[in-house]
Amino acid sequence: MATDELKNRARAALRSIIDLYTAGEAEVVRVFFSRPRTNAEYLDMVLRQMGREAIVAHWLFTLVPMGEKLERGVGRWELYEKLQQMADEAKHYALLADVAEWLAGKKLPAEELRRYEVHGFWEAGVAEQYLNPPLLPEAAKWVEVSRRFRAEHDTDFLQGVVQLTEGGGGGAFIEASRVGADEFQRRFARAMGQIVADEMRHGPEHLDEFVEQKIQTEADLERAARVLTALMAQHLRVRNEIYGFCLSEERLAAVDRGEVGPPPRVEAAPIPVTS
Fold first, then answer.
1. How do residues 127-156 score in pLDDT, each as one tens digit?
2. Nearest 5°: phi and psi at 74?
3. What are the two backbone dihedrals, phi and then psi, of residue 70, each rounded to the nearest 5 degrees?
4. Furthest C-alpha separation in the chain
5. Rounded to whole angstroms, how far apart are CA atoms 202 and 137?
6. pTM of the full predicted structure?
7. DSSP string, 133-178
8. What domain range is 43 assigned to?
9. C-beta neighbour count of 125 within 10 angstroms
10. What CATH number corresponds to the domain at position 170?
11. Number of domains the chain contains
C-alpha cells in the first residue's frame, strides 16, 4: 500500500506538471490576442478549436455497445459520465460554431465547419482521417503519442493520465474567457467562459482520485509523471497549432524547461451567462 508521504509527493509532482503546461497554454492565447487580427485569422482559429470538440461525432458508435453491456460490465455511473462528457463536447462545438457563423456572417457548410476535425486520442474504430488529420500535424502527433503509450501501459492507467490532460489544464480556456477588445473577442470569451468549468471537471479535478487509485509505488509515480509530461508537452503544441503557431519552437522548449509564470487562476476567470 502506498504511504501518505508517497501520495502527497505524487499529488505535488503531477500538479506541478499540469500547472506548468496550463501556464504555457495560457501564454499561447495571450500572445495570439496581443496584436490585432483579421477576421480570417479569427475564423481559422475558431474552426481549429471546433475540430477538437467534434470528437463527440466519433464517440456515438460507442453508445450501443455500452447500452448492451449496462450492468453486465458497464456500470450505470460509467454510462452516465460518458453521456455527460459527450453532451458537454457537443455543447462546446455548438457554442464555437455559432461564433464562427456570426463572424462569417452566414451559415457555413459542413465541409468548412468540420475542416479541422480530429479525434482527441488514439481509439480503435475511429476513421484514419480523424486520427491522422493532414491539416493538423501536431494533433496527429498527439494521437500517435497516445497510441504509443497505449501499447506500453495498461488501459485504465493510461486513461487516467489522459483524463488529467483534458483541456490542457484549462489555461487556454481561462485566458480566452478574459478577452474583450472587440465584438468577436467578447462573443468568443462568453463561449470559452462556458467551456471552462466543463473542461476543469473533465480533467485536472480528477488528480486526487487518480493518485488514490493508481499510485501505489515509486514506479507508478515515475511512469505517471513521464507519461503526463509527454502528453502535456504535445498538447501544448496542439494548442499552439490551433492559435496559428504563436510561440516559436525555442519558446516551446523553454516552457518544457519550466520557464513560465504561474498558471491562471480558474476562480478569477469570468464565467459569463448568456441571455
1. 888 889 999 999 999 999 988 998 888 888
2. -115, 120
3. -55, 125
4. 59
5. 25
6. 0.88
7. -TT-HHHHHHHHHHHHHHHHS-HHHHHHHHHHTGGGGGHHHHHHTT
8. 4-268
9. 8
10. 1.20.910
11. 1
